[in-house]
Each structure stands twice: as structure tokens, then as C-alpha cells.
Amino acid sequence: MYPAVIESYVAPKTVQEALNALAAHGDDAHFIAGGQSLMQAIKSRLVSPKCLVDLQHVAELKGVWSDDGGLRIGAMTRYREIATAVPLAGAYEALRDAASHVGDRQVRNRGTIGGSLCWNYLAACTPAACIGIGASVELLDSKGKRRTLSAEEFLRGPLETARQHDEILLSVLLPRAAVKTGSAYKKWGLVTDALPVVGVCALVELAEDGRCRRARLAVGGLASGPRRATAGEERLAGLKPSDAEGIGAAADAAAAATDVQSDMWADQNYRKTLIAALAREVIATAFARAG
Amino acid sequence: MNRTVSITINGEVYEESVPIRMLLVDFIRDVCGLTGTHVACTYEGVCGACTVHLDGEAVKACLMLAVQADEHSVTTIEGLAPDGDLHPLQKSFNDHHALQCGFCTAGILMNAAEFLKVNRNPTEAEIRAALVGNLCRCTGYAHIVDAIKDAAGRNA
What we know:
By secondary structure, chain A is of the alpha+beta class. Helices cover 32% and strands 23% of the residues of chain A.
């Protein structure tokens, strides 16, 4: 596999320059972030951009910081940094779980959270993790219009997002978490750190009495795109972290209510078995991290 | 559709006009003539044989364009032992018979060299996890893991 001819390449230093470059080259231009998925898509002709707008030098898109809305992760922040980001411990640790097992360490040295979300590959970890933890994304278009969408609104079917061609993903926003909040993500693939056949994310928030006040569950690896599993979330409300039976019932409910496909890696029954097993595990881990 | 790039490889600046679609690994091998960096999986990003350091970090040179490395510093296997003394990893790979055909070795050494900078005293499980991106089809990894563990002990 080798890339087809690419006519132009620009490496802007600011978001505005990046948006201008994309607008100047029209529909044939494509942003490139870490390129760990996009390069393969270019080689296989899944996409054939005539112009690449490389975001590697846009400093304002990098890093993890907090602001009035909560925690922010710049779109060009790499898996390498997310995997060890201290502010994500506990409440948003699911994102570290996901980032630390994407591909391999060479890929994690270049791959970015924004690239992963905008690509929204079927077998990807970050999209499901972002839905699970209740993240939002901030977008900016070439006319200066900003909008914030929940990860659920942003992420559609595989390879589809709500991003318009003239928009850039600026950052991922994680709302300020209640004190006793924990999250976890785990995937299952054919070999160590393989693309996920299924990935499950859980977030739980505990009330004063130690019971679950709020829960979120999300599943990735689905033909319909990453999805919340609200049937499981409802069952978690009011549960004690020690209630293994209740957690099991919630995990089973999440699996039962999720539409799954059969493919060469897992048939429908096996996928549901995987979802239930992973959900049990991530819910228990999320509870432990919340306490 | 060419563009002029200036890429420092192993301390030497290569200023060349290259097609935008040229992969970094081909720039290293075909333009600069540094053929120690290998291509084993036809540029599919899965084998790790083309692993080099980009600004000190291990990356796969088939998963980026040469133009993306413009103004960056690259180290290839030829630059791992600049003074002619073998790198501790090279010594330990020799001692532990950690290669047979050797085709994957350059990529593994480059990945492991950066890994040992990040994690100076890794467990066996951490070493194995760090090798996920490098395929070897003849040693079975046991000797590679031993060699990396030994090199960590030698303060690689």
C-alpha cells in the first residue's frame, strides 16, 4: 500500500491558519493529526486528499488543563500523554485505560485523541470511552462559530461524525466530577492490545451513603457506532459497590439491550457475552476508583 | 508535487526535494541510503521493522510522510551507536542470541532503546507489552525479552 499523489501539504502554526488552509483547498483537503489511522486510509484509497493540513505544530491544540467548565484535553494530545495524565485519575481514568492500550507504543507516541474521535473507527477505544465518561467536544468553524456537542451527538456510525468539513475539533471537555466518581474502560481483542472486538466503559458516581447515584455505560465495536447502554445504567442506580449480583444484572441488561452484529471475530451471542463480562469488570473497577 | 524538506538524521542534515506522498521510511532508505531501517509489512504499520526515533521517540516511519518530519530530528539504527561502541541493547542482543534472521532487529532495538529511557527497570510483563508493535517471526520473543531485561540492568 502506498499513498496516491498528494498535491499540497501545509503545516499551520495556529488554529486560524489551519482553518484558513482547509478552506482555501476546499473539499479535497484533509486535516491530519497523528496520522496513525489516516495514513493507512490514504494508502488504501479510502480517502484521497489532494491537500493535507498537518496539525502537528498547532500548540493551542495540545495538553490537558482545567478551566471553568472542567477538564479540557486538546485535540492534538497524544495517547502517550493521556495514558499517564494525572488529572484524569479516578473520575476519568477510563480514558487512561483506553489510551494506554491503543495499538502499540509507537502508535501511542503519535496518535491523538482528536484524530481518533474525528475518525470514529468502528474498532476504536477513545470514542466509546468518551461517551461513557460523558465527554463533550468543542468545534470551531472557519467563520469563527464555536459549538459544543456531547460525544454522543458528535459520534455517529463508524467513520461518521457531526463535524462539518470546515470545522476543526479543538478540545474534549470533561465536566467537573463529583468527589466520589470513578470510571474504567476495557476492551477485548484477538491478541494483546489488538483493535477492540468489543470495548466497554463505565462511570459511577457515589452518593453520601456510598450507593450509586449516577452511572453511565457505553459500548464500542458496534456496527452502529459507539453507543450508550442505558438499560444497564438504570440498573446501577442505588446499588452498593459490594452488590456483585446487582452489578451482574446491570451488565447483563446492558448486553441484552445492545444491538450487536456478527462478524468474523465474534458472532452476536459471543459479542453479548463479551459485553456482559467486560461490563461486570469495568463497573467493579469504576466503583473501586470512586470510593 | 514536490516539497523541499530539511531532516536531520543521525546528526546529519538532509535537505532534499521529495514528493509529498513519500513515506519517511523511503526517504531514510532510498534518498539517504540508510538501509538499516527495514520494511517488512509493505507499509501497513503492523510490523514495527521501520521503527526510528523522531525527536527521541519511537515511531513507525511507514506511518508518516517525509514532509511531516521536516525540521525534525530522526535517529535510525545507524545512529544508535554513534561512536562505534555497541549500544548496551546491541551487546545484550548478541549475548542472548536475540535474533535469528535479523530482519526485525533494527526496529526492535530502536523501540526498546526509547522504552528503556522511559522505564529504566521494567518488569517482564512491561517489556512484553512494549514489544506489541514489533513482529518477530523466528525467535519466539523469549530471547528478545531476556536481552532487553539484561540491557536494562546494564543501564541502557
